[in-house]
Each structure stands twice: as structure tokens, then as C-alpha cells.
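Instructor's aside before we start: the two examples that follow are unrelated to each other. I chose them only because their records fit on one page, so don't look for a connection. First example below.
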Amino acid sequence: MGGTAPSRSGDRRRGSVRPRHAGRAYPRRTSMRRGTRGLILAAGRGSRLGRLTSRRPKALVPLAGKPLIAHQLDSFREAGVHPVAVVSGYLGGQLRDLGVDLFENPEWSRTQMVRSLACAAPWLREGPTVISYGDVICAPSVLRRLAECEEEIAVACDLEWRRLWEARFDDPLADAETFRFAPDGSVAEIGHRPRRIAEIEAQYMGLFRLTPEGWRRIEQRLARWGRRETDGLDVTTLLDRLIEDDVRVAAVPVRGGWIEVDRPGDLELYERWIREGKSFLSACTRR
């Protein structure tokens, strides 16, 4: 963080011509001298996992003999992102043994991810924060790259998302969302249902970073929109609305190095990779 306000001079219209990837102006990076902290949003049940979450939060579902959230906490630790807090909800008492600060979303069953984010507002006001979904595991290098971004609001995105999606789904458009770059390399569109592959220039990874100023911009809009509207917001819808409101959302591109767990088939896939002697984080990464 250098304290420099982000530029707003780029053409932010959705119809802008996409530049060649090599010509994009990537967000400037810093050295994490000011102590980037972490936050994991783990309030949801994960109903698509069925019986696997009948008696435990989704974040505690095991992979390779260890809960999902334990893998991600290890990555945060190795990346030098600390301290880390967690937002709990469904069966949240089971997360108390993680040894981290806990915030609670008592309305987890009727609200979406943005409400969980708001439950950690005191944490977000104190310093730059890398925020992760509770069902995502990232390589430490991915977390470091995002943590070093100087922008007020930034999202990590996978340029080679199809490697993971084609391993998980018969149709790579299944469960993917649109992601378009603006000419200046920031995000021009995110979170819509794609009709064709060309609308997906990268894939959002459930991983983003906010500075206190970035969170202040979000809080102002949440207050303006009101609880009835914001309780139903997911993160990509929030980001897309910020972009429409001319708020810059920086993109931090990576190439693989992450997984998400949404269905039992995801766990089966990653466990199979492990049996084959592959790392579940490297199997979908370009070599």
C-alpha cells in the first residue's frame, strides 16, 4: 500500500475493446510492510455437499485428512498474511478451536456472503485485508500476489480457469461466471451468467483484497442500498455494482494454484489427484 488513490482515467464501459493481454497495466504491488491481514468467510452450510455438512460447517469438510479451512489457514500463514479472522454461522461453535478471531453472522441462513463480510467490519477498518471464501484453497504464492496489490479493491482471477473447470464439469460453462477486463487491466464486468466462452476472460476465485478505504466505499453503498437489498447480495454482484458505480476494481491475474469445493464430486476429484501423486493445487496449474 502506497496510499495513492487509484486512477479513474481508463475507459470503463462494458463495450470497450479488449486489449492484448501483454499490454495490460497490472496493479502496482507493494511489499506487505504494513501488515496485510486475512479474513475467511465461512458462515454458510454448503447444502450442495449434502450429508457431508449435516453435522459440520462446510469449512470443516475434510480433504486429504484435513479440514478445508485448515488448508487455507496454512496457506495464509506461509504467505505471511496474518493475523487471520473467520466469519462463522452454521454450526459456528465448531470453528472455535481454530485459534483465530471469530466474527458471527447470526443470520447466515437468510443472508448472503456480503452480510457475512459486513459482520467483520471492525476487522476490515483496521488494515488491508485479503478475504477468502471458506471453501477455497489457494497456494501461498497466490495469496502473496494479491496481498502485495496496492489498490483499494482488488480481486484475484485465474487466466487458465478452464483447466480446473474442464476437470470438474462436462460443460466448462457450467457454474462459471463472466469476467471481462477493461483496457486498463481492471475489471469491467463480473458475475453474470455466460452464454459463450468468450465472455469469460478469466475466472473469479473467491479471493479478494480490501483496504480500509476500499471497505469504506463499500459500506457507504451498503448503507445507501439498505438491508433488505444488501442481505441478498453475493460478492460478485456487489463487485459488479461497484463497477457500474464507477468504483475501480483491480484485477490480479494468476495461472491456476487454487481449488474450490462445491459438490461431493469436487472432493472425489481432488482425492483422486492425490492418489495419483499430484498436488491438488498443482494438478490444474500450467507447468
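Example two begins here.
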Amino acid sequence: MLSIKLKTDNPADYAQALRSTVLKIEFDGEQTVWCPIGDFSGSGVGGKPLKSWYRTVTGDGEMISRWVMPYQHTAKITVLNVGDKRVSILLKARNGTWAWNKKQGMYFHADWKNQNNVPLRQVDVPVYPTDKNYPMDWDLNTIEGSGVFVGETFAVYNHMHVWYGEGDQKLWVDGAKFPVEYGTGTEDYYNTSWAPVVLYQTPFANAPRADNADSFGYNTFTRTRNLDAVPFSKSFRFSLETLGWQDGFADFAATTYWYGVKGAKSSAATHQSIPGKLPQ
């Protein structure tokens, strides 16, 4: 169990501090976690309450993680403040015994990827691959090695006053030419078919933040997998099509949670995103 509670001198700085304060964890000498604490908790921007099987964010701001994080010899937890305001942190970690399997043991990973002004294309408008605005697949993460994908947090700042999440999710495993999971829209993947922008809490899927009925502003979804976890032997890729109800832009921040054998690497970890200023 890992518990984190953050405080700022000025309450107005709290949301930015949750994004600018980064959790870094190393197991047996290798970094496997690099993620802003607000995104790691599943609540995205603002520290909104969350009630899920693996994570809880309480009304007073305590962020609790119940991910199992095995290691063989050593674990090192570091908290980095990459912002320009002072923060105070109360961190508690609870450990226990673990029988490490030298052949099949896996480490917990949490990778964070951020991109501002992701271009979105209007859905149901005929386009061709030669079109400069042809919708792309936005990768949340790509992984090389053996492991199991167990969930993600998708924190969005929508610059439009219409829905941004018409793109299908695609999960690719071990270099397959066609996705092993091919969805019907981001809103379906996160249990909000027909795109109602509403808050909800369930054990394995949550929407802790939704600022406006037209989806403008901040929206956060998180999903964790149990029976539907995705094992892979060689590689894994998770992407979303960039489609909305009109052409426009949105800021995407994705946290992917996965377990990997020693030596497994991800693109999000290799090209490490550094938190910046939040849009006002």
C-alpha cells in the first residue's frame, strides 16, 4: 500500500502541484514508475475523489494505491517537485514478504505521456490517407518485452465545446497486424455510450472529473483490468483514434499501468514527458 498526501501554501496552487509533483520508483536498481501523483492516483487534474479497487482518493486529499509492486532486493521511492511552488508531502508505504520468481517475476510500471494540442478530426466526414487532417492513432504507450497490461488513466483538457472521444481504442499484441481489441468509441470504452459527460464510480472504471456538460475543459477517465488484463510475450501497443464531433484540439495525458519482466521497456518511459503549466 502506498499513501500520499500533498499540501500547498496557497490552495490555488494545489491542482498545479498535483501535476508538477512526480512520483519516481525504482525496483532493483531500475526505474519503473515516473508519473505525476495526481495522474498516478487516477484522479487526473485537481485531486477529485476516486473510489476504485486499486486506488482511492479521499475527500481530504489522501491518495491511496493498492497496486502490488513486487521486487527482489531493493525499492526506492522518490518524490520530485518540478514546479515553482513549495509543496509538502506525507508519504507512507507498507511492504511485506514476496516469493520472487526468478524466471517469471514481473515489476510494476506506471508510465506517463503528455501531449498538448492533439489535433482531432470530425467523425463521419469522408477523408483519405493523403488528407493532411487524416485522423491519427494516438499511442498511450508501446511496450517491448513480456508483461501484462492492467489499466490506464486518461486525463483530457478539451479545447472544444463538443465531444472529443469518438475514436476507437486499439490494443495490439506481439506484432499482430490487426488489434486484438478494437473498440467502438472512447465513450463506450469508458462506459459512457452516447457521450454523456457525467461522474461515476465503479470498482474497475471511473470518471472522477467532468467539468461541463458539453465536455469543454477537464475530463478524466480511468479503467483497471481484472479478468480482462492483457498479457503479451513480445510487445504491446495501446492507441486511440483522434476523432471528435468537430475538428479541433485537446490536451491528452495518459498513465498506463502494467507489469513487465526485467528488461521490458516502453516508449513513454524512454521519451519521458515533463509536466508543464496547466491551461487556465
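Helices lie at 14-20, 37-40, 186-189, 267-270.
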